[in-house]
Specification:
Blueprint (H helix, E strand, L loop, with lengths): L4 E5 L8 H13 L5 E5 L17 H13 L4 E4 H4 L12 E3 L1 H9 L3 E4 L1
Parallel strand pairs: 1-2, 1-5, 2-3, 3-4
Helix pairs in contact: 1-2
Length: 115
């Protein structure tokens, strides 16, 4: 059985390269049979918006996020983040989760990467 990998991305993509690097690394690991999950919290869900242009390393995000979608790697967005980030027109499917479910997702991973 392949190890379960969870990415927790919580850095602000308008100020940090970390969300873009997390997506790039996740896409690299997702090419195999590794079961991946990505949780976005804080300001990081901005990477899913079709309106954002001022993100650090947006070219990396635009290159690798479609692969995440194509490979059906699940995306989870913290419900509190949705209060101030509009993702109604996002081209990406995601599931809103609360703190309890986020904790369960993190606890279920063999490896957890935090960005």
């Amino acid at each position: 059985m392949a190890p379960k990998i969870v990415f927790l991305i919580r850095s602000n993509p308008e100020k940090s390269h970390r969300p873009a690097e997390a997506i790039r690394i996740a896409a690299g690991l997702g090419i195999g049979k590794n079961p991946l999950k990505i949780i976005l919290s804080g300001e990081s869900p901005r990477i899913l918006s079709d309106d954002e242009e001022d993100l650090v390393d947006i070219e990396i995000i635009e290159k690798f996020l479609p692969l995440i979608k194509e490979w059906n790697i699940p995306l989870y967005v913290d419900k509190d983040s949705l209060a101030h980030i509009d993702l109604k027109n996002s081209p990406y499917d995601f599931r809103a989760v609360g703190p309890e479910e986020s904790s369960e997702l993190l606890a279920g991973g063999h490896y957890v990467f935090v960005f």
